[in-house]
Amino acid sequence: MSSAELSQIAVNALLLSGLLALVAVGFSLVWGIMNIVNLSHGAFIVMGAYLTYWMHELLHVDPFLSIPVSMAVLFALGYAVQRTVINQIMRAPLLATFLLTFGLEILIVNLLNFFFKADTRSVTTSYSGTGFTLGAVRIPYVRLFALLVSLTLVLLLGAFLNRSRLGRAIRATGMDIDAARLTGVQVGAIYALTFAIGSAFAGAAGSLLAMVIPFDPNLGGGYTERAFVICVLGGLGNVVNVLIGATIYAVVDVFVASRLPQLSQAVTFALLVVLLIVRPQGIAGRSLS
Amino acid sequence: MRRTLFSLTALLFGAFPVLAADTITFGAAISITGKTAKEGEYTRDGYQFAIDKINEMGGIKVGGKVYKVALKYYDDETKPERSAQLFEKLINEDKVNLLLGPYGSSPTGTAAPIAERYRMPMVEANGAAEGVFNKGYKFSFMILSPAKLYLRGIIDLIRAKDPALKNVAILGENESFSKEVAAGAAEYAKEKGMQVVYDELYPTGAQDVSALLTAIKGKNADVILGSGHLQDSLLIVKTAKDLNVAPKAMGFSVGPSSPEFRENLKKNADYIFGATQWTDALRYKGTDPWSTPQAFATAFRATHPQYKVIPYQVAESAVAVITYKSAIEAAGTLDPGKVRDALAAIDLTTFYGRVKFDARGVNVFKPMAVEQLQPDGNKYTVWPEDVAEKPALFPMPAWDKR
Questions:
Q1: Which of A156, A240, B55, B190 stands 20 to 30 A from A75 (CA)?
Q2: Model's pTM, two decimal places?
């Protein structure tokens, strides 16, 4: 591997890792705080992608500017979904949460198929595919901005959870629900808020993905899987863990794909299995249970 | 009394074959519902359109007698196991004379052994995977150019444009049909003295191909060929532009022929080549009832105004019926074995291109056509050169020089 190729691949991995961190952070939050492995996370991502697509297509809104809108819409939707649906299974056995969120995923995907058909879409702007060259390395603007936006959002979420009163209430609920309740935390409201934030971040991830990859209603499942692997790799409990998990995933995926593309997915999942055996708490995090 | 009943029964049962004897019935199970319902509909419409045309022209002459033609079909619900049952039913209960294929490679794979068992020919027009034809079956025939030919047209085209071009990179999806396409392209490029500098498969559903294109960039590929789904082709073009990978030509087995290709990529779709079985812009001149793709398209649109563009599935399905007509006339009998032999020996020129089968029953003699998306926003059929609509634009300019 030439040094030019090596540095390009490293940059590719870096650009991908930011995006994947944003894909996984909402999933990780919901899992860590509410103990729900949200199998409909990918479907929320796809909804974010469609919001950005339609805003760009119909109203000519720049896709980056549509991110706050898709976050707001998905926040509201997530809040409503938690209150009406997810709330039924809080503290229910794991299987019940799987069934419900999986059902939710199927429902959303089918609705998207019904309204928007299975056509493939992408958001193509005048600056899509443009970039600059740094030495031998090519850096596309869209991917670079996507990385910056992702990192900013993920770090903001981290700051919110660690510094703000509400964020601390969320974390307290995740740590010990009874103790949180005793100190006056409204657990019900916190759950709804947590799920809403998770959905909002899924929406942001969808908005960015719409610029980077062609999508259709069925895209989400693959991203739920990726979010899951990233959470296992990094461990739950902290946004830094998500960043670590996403970086490992991206590095492995991109480097394996540069030589043995056939095996890129197989190797990342093999890594997941190995890690679950030797270090089930994730590389940096606390236990998953 | 018994005698009366007997003669009545004889009359009843005897009467139908007499009526039916004036009609040649083609049987098929087609996906009218399910995942490939749309394509199944194209297939049926193509069969029926050719059958109506033959009847309108009088019918098929067998020996001294003229027969009308009819289609008997069932819905296989896009379930390959269902199509096998239905083909048995068509042979045993409906007593159809000859078989037409279902839609898709999988049901073709389950129907072919049935045709073989009952020694009844099946001409199929909608399954391009070759696997089933490598099993030594004698009664199945494929009208299509098979998978391994898909990217040959593009290779021939760029070699005609610049014989000095050497380096080819091939990316294929790790899935049976796409793998056949990629392997066929690599083999052909090598045969033509080109250097295959990159030949890799990526997993189905890949979401990031930056590593593959980075590797290709390092190999100085003149040509990038892709075989996968529409989304893969879109992602490869997007990523190539992202990473400023600018070969002299880019082509795909699947994607460019779909209108979604342009809608997704906008101007970035320019100069890209796509393989296709057939377009109505080709300039073939055949001995069939329509003779040219344009005449076929006009006639079809007149009876089916709901079609804006004529899908190639309609054309290839119609040609399957036309091929039978020639074979039956050549055989001079409806005996399935004799019709099979006539099919094996057939060599037709049609509006769809040449129809001739190799020893396995595959039409390797029809080249794949190539379409190109050009900067005026339209898509043109640019290969084979002698029947093309417009010359191909070559080479593809660098991304920043457009």
A1: A240
A2: 0.85
ipTM score: 0.89
- Reported as a single tens digit per residue, the pLDDT across A194-212 is 999 999 999 999 999 999 9
Please indicate whether, in this complex, the C-beta atoms of B203 and A16 are within 8 angstroms of each other: no
Best B36, B216, B243 residue to mutate vs chain A (most A CBs within 10 Å): B243
For B296-314, how does the pLDDT look when each residue is reduced to its tens digit (9 = 90+)?
Answer: 999 999 999 988 888 999 9
A 142-171: CB under 8 A from B: 142-143
What is the Cα–Cα distance from B130 to B362, expressed in whole angstroms?
8
Q: How many CB pairs under 8 A join A and B?
A: 113
B205 CB near a chain A CB, below 8 Å?
A: yes
Q: Is residue B280 within 8 Å of B294, Cβ to Cβ?
A: yes
Query: Domains in chain B and their CATH numbers?
Result: 2-145+281-356 (3.40.50.2300), 149-276+368-401 (3.40.50.2300)
In terms of CA atoms, which chain A residue is nearest residue B171?
A261
Q: Does any CB of chain A come closer than 8 Å to the CB of residue B214? A: yes
Read off the tokens for B293: 């793709």
Cβ within 8 Å of residue B300, ≥6 positions away: B49, B307, B310, B314
Q: Which of B117, B118, B125, B123 is nearest to B140 (CA)?
A: B123
Residue range A3-278, CATH number: 1.10.3470
